[in-house]
Amino acid sequence: MDHQISSLQTTIRMRSTALLETSCGYLLQELQMIWDEVGEDQFEREKVLLDLEQECLEVYRRKVDTANISRAHLHQELAEAEAEFTHLLLSLGERSLPGRPEKMSGTLKEQLDSITPALREMRLRKEERVNQFQAVQGQIQKISAEIAGQSEYDNSSSTVIVNENDLSLKKLEEYQIELQRLRNEKNERLQRVEKYIGKIHNLTAILGMDSSMIITKVHPSLNELSGMSKNISDSILAKLKSTVESLEEEKQKRLEKLRQLGRALKNLWNLMDTPSRERQSFCHVTDLLLVSSEVSDPGSLTPSIIQQAEAEVKRLDQLKASKMKELFHKKQNELEEICNKSHMEIPSQSEMDNITNLIKTGEIDHADLLMSMDEQISRAKEEASSRKAIMEKVERWMLARDEERWLEEYNRDENRYSVSRGAHKNLRRAERARITVNKIPALVDLLIVKTKSWEEERKKVFLYDEVPLLAMLEEYNMFRLEKEEEKQRQRENKKVQSQVVVEQENLFVSRPGTSSRRLSNGSLNGGFTNAVPINRRVSLSIQHLGSNSINSATQGISFIKEGRKVQGEKMFARPSLAHLRDETASVVSTFSGPLSP
């Protein structure tokens, strides 16, 4: 027991010594002194000391736990700071922060104190970057809303959601590029809107319409007096485009209408020879026919101008109706004059009478009729122009035929060489006529070549006063050849007659005693007396044949007209040359019969 007590005291002393070595040793020593003085039981003393030890352990344990918790919190804060810093670096697209070491050393608080400024700097950068994103995305939303047609865009009601996981400069640049694209699109749309509005102003001024009402009808914001920002959506642009197209279409309709009225006015003025002073009031309408570019004069296509032009055309149409018959006859006379001048075929009188009846009954359109007449006149002028060269040579041929006929009559005159007044003039004319007549064959051949060429080119027959010119020329050549042959036969007959007379005279001289077979002077003279009239009659008949075969232009054509409907009928009269040859032969036989031996 004593040993246990001594060991316990030793233990207490050791503890007391330990306590004395601590800051609480003085207190424990003071407690020991109190116990000694009081005489406290040793067991109670041990119990109190054990309680004190337990309480001290509890206090130490709580402090250690508190320290552990504090250390854990510091580790957590440091880890969170590191994670946040790393996240900020990634979200901002940066690799590191200048001035911050890659690896940290020292206590936890020192490490935490070293990362806090960098974290604060990164937070400030993030806040600044977020503000930049919000500004750019806000502008994008606003412009997108304007393009979409939301003119009244409210910034306060709209919330910009920024993706804080990607705040890099690259992403910010992409948003800025998108913003610039939208701004360019907005400017382009505004320019298109202004362009459309400008066109609407110009077109309405030309057409005499209210541009403000038309623009407001498209959208109220497009009116400058509204004070709103202009709507630039696709639907508004489509409406503006449609409005401009409809105005352009209306402009073209009115322009075409006025041009038709202008053409009608000019045609009516020209038909009725309207004086210039009456045309001046509608010169602005006819001037549109000369304008090849766009019509841009304000008020040039108003409905009132169209109504006035229509009223004038209507008035002139009524006036034209009363003068249509006169105009038709004027055109008809012009056409007949062209045809007569060029010896072309003239439209039949029955056809003209039918047209006149249609005019009276109103069954034919006046404009169509005059247009048809103008076309006929134009074709007639064109054909007359193509016939001009041939007709000039035909006229030369006709004049040459007249000279030929005069020369034949001159040659039949027995007194043509007598000395009389004017005989020398006839001689000179006869010389000129012979030169002209000698040129006729070449002229006729040239006419035939040119006429054939004309007919091949035109695919039609060349008519001269409704008679084929080639037929006339070929008939003339044939008659001229027959005439030359007849003259040759006449010369041969005269030669035979002269030989017979010479033989008769020689016979009378060589045989004077044959009175029974001799003809008396009276009978001989009588024979020649009878022969001469017969011979002269033959000559006159042949000359008459030549005169009829080469007739004047009017006589020949009138004769041809009577037989033009029969294709193969001859156009010039051909006397029976066989009869003339028989008559001449009978004359020769009359003289040669009694004188034969």
TrEMBL record:
Could you tell me the Gene Ontology terms of the biological process aspect for this record?
Answer: microtubule cytoskeleton organization
Listed A to Z, the keywords are: Coiled coil, Cytoplasm, Cytoskeleton, Microtubule, Nucleus, Phosphoprotein
Q: Which GO terms describe its molecular function?
A: microtubule binding
Matches recorded under Pfam families: MAP65_ASE1
The source's domain of life comes to: Eukaryota
- One of the record's GO cellular component terms: cytoplasm
Coiled-coil residue windows: 165-199, 237-268
Q: Where in the cell is it found?
A: Cytoplasm, Cytoskeleton; Nucleus
What main location does UniProt list?
Answer: cytoplasm
Family, per the entry? Belongs to the MAP65/ASE1 family.
Question: Can you say what this protein is called?
Answer: 65-kDa microtubule-associated protein 8
Q: Which organism is it from?
A: Castanea mollissima (Chinese chestnut)
* Upper classification of the organism: Eukaryota, Viridiplantae, Streptophyta, Embryophyta, Tracheophyta
